[in-house]
Amino acid sequence: MNPTPSTPQVITHVAELQRRVHAARQVGRVVGLVPTMGALHEGHLSLIDASTAECGLTVVTIFVNPTQFGPNEDFAAYPRDLQHDLSLLAGRGEVLVFAPDTATVYGARHATSIEVVGPALPLEGEFRPGHFRGVATVVLKLFLLVRPDRAYFGRKDYQQTLVVRRMTDDLHLPIHIEVCPTVREPDGLAMSSRNVYLSPEERQRALAISQSLLMAKHLIAGGTLDAATVTARMRERLTAADLKIDYVALADPDTLEGVATLDRPTVALIAARVGQTRLIDNERIV
Length: 286
Ligand code: PAF
Known about the structure:
This protein is an alpha/beta fold. The protein folds into two domains: 10-180, 3-Layer(aba) Sandwich (Rossmann fold), CATH 3.40.50; 193-284, Pantoate-beta-alanine ligase, C-terminal domain (Pantoate--beta-alanine Ligase, Chain: A,domain 2), CATH 3.30.1300.10. It has helices at residues 14-26, 42-54, 82-89, 102-105, 124-127, 131-146, 158-170, 200-221, 227-240; strands at residues 9-11, 31-36, 57-62, 95-98, 150-154, 176-180, 244-251, 267-274, 277-284. It has a six-stranded parallel sheet with strand order 1-4-3-2-5-6, sandwiched between helices. A three-stranded antiparallel sheet has the order 7-8-9, covered by helices on one side. α6 (131-146) crosses α7 and α8 packs antiparallel against α9. It starts with 8 loop residues before the first strand and ends with a strand. Bound molecules: pantoate. Pantoate binds at residues 35-37, 65, 68, 135, 138-139, 157, 160.
């Protein structure tokens, strides 16, 4: 009989985290960081597997970061189930979980934030003011607490990866940022912790998001290179499924500036609401 794989150790105190990371470094291990807000799914697990394949120690942080949620967003409702998360991590290699409380990350007199402009300004930056300030601030804190050699992020949060890379380069942080492919359900829905909010009927309608990304690729392959035409068709598809669109953007993959003619590298990005649930997705379409 196989022994049950043990769940990873959970650390809540910074001193213990740093002792463990230091011990790993002393024996020459590369340290990987996978920052998460918990509610782990296959997308997170793919990041963790990428890290454990490349690093002798992987620190998975589980922290629902209050500063990246707007006042009317789902911070309170965000799914939290540490025991379930730990069960998913069982047997996944040299993994340590750092799950601090809010007071550990943001002391009572906390007064410092990181403001990235450039790639943080459009799209999510317009629809979720302050979101990337919260993300950049907590990611920098986690980088400084863990001091990893490598950090792993999912392409599903495309704009976030640009913001994290910009901050890492601008602040000369000696951390390699690795961006891993979006993991999708067999029917195309991008894995997201927020998918648990969807009723079966909403989940079905949510497929319009990945389908409209696919449609954009087909249109381009068929010779439609006018971005306005492709965007209009994508919007029609989303609206037909009764999704409320925040944005459909065809943009330069590095700067997120809008692209008019689809004869150059382009990423398509969507944010839309299915009922109360806001989902984002993206694909390179050229
Ligand atoms: O992508 C996320 O889950 C969060 O934005 C992150 C990077 C863990 C920061 O809280």
